[in-house]
Amino acid sequence: DRLKTKANKLKKAQSQSGKISAPHFWRKINGLQKHIINNTSSEIIKFAEKFNADVIVFEYLGKMKMPKGYYGAKKLRHKLHHWCKLGIQNKVEEMAHYRGMRIRRVNAKYTSALAFDGTGELTRNSKKDLAVFRTGKVYHADLNATYNIGARYFIRELLKSFSEKKRLSVEAKVPSLTTGTRLTLASFISLHQALSTEGAKQLA
C-alpha cells in the first residue's frame, strides 16, 4: 500500500510538472522496495527452515509484459511490483543456497486462473483476493495459486524420474498431465492415485 501511494504521488508530480527526474520520490520508492525485498525474503527463508524444506518453488516470471490499458501510475505500479517479485526471488535464491536449499521454478501460466480442484477457470472478486470456482466455492486466490504451483513442481519431478514407457502409461491414465500449462493440484492427486493403483496391482 505504501509503495502504491508513493507511485501515485510520483506520477501526480510528473503530470503537473512534466517529465521530472524526481530523485526525492525515487529515493523513497527504492528504499521501500529494498525493505520489502529483504523483509519478505527473510520471512520466506524462516518459514522454509521451520518446516525443514529442501526446495523452495517459485513461478518463473520471465520478461515483464505490460497488460493492455495500463498507463500512468497504474503502469508504474505494475513495473514496481514486477521488479519487487524478481528481487525477492533473487534474494531468496541467494539465502537458500547458503543454507543448502534448492530453488525451482515452474510455468506461471494459469496458476491463478485455474481452480486447484480441477473444476476449470475461476473468477476473482474486485479486490482480487478471493477466487470463485465454477461450483460456487469461494477460496483465497493466492492460496489457490500456491496449491497449483506446488503441484506443478511435484508432477514435473515425478515424471522426470520415469522411463519413457512408464511416463506414457501414466499420461494415458491421467490425460491432464499432457496439458502442462493447465496442471493443478487435482492433476497431482490424480497422478498419485494412478501410481497407487499401479503399485497395488503389482503387489497383488
Written overview of the protein:
- The chain is mostly helical.
- It has two domains: 1-105, no CATH class; 109-204, no CATH class.
- Helix content is 59%, strand content 10%.
- The protein is built from six helices and five strands.
- A hairpin with a 5-residue loop joins strand 3 (123-124) and strand 4 (130-132).
- Helix 1 packs antiparallel against helix 2 and helix 4 (141-160) runs parallel beside helix 6.
- The mean pLDDT is 90.
Main sheet characteristics: 3 strands, antiparallel
Class by alpha and beta content: mainly alpha
> Poorly predicted ranges (pLDDT <50, ≥5 residues)?
none
Number of helices: 6
What is this structure, in a nutshell?
By secondary structure, this protein is mostly helical.
Descriptive tags:
about 60% helix, 6 helices, about 10% strand, about 200 residues, mainly alpha
Detail the topology: elements first, then pairings:
Blueprint: H1 2-17, H2 23-50, E1 55-60, H3 72-98, E2 102-107, E3 123-124, E4 130-132, E5 138-140, H4 141-160, H5 164-173, H6 185-203
Parallel strand pairs: 1-2
Antiparallel strand pairs: 3-4, 4-5
Helix pairs in contact: 1-2, 1-3, 2-3, 4-6
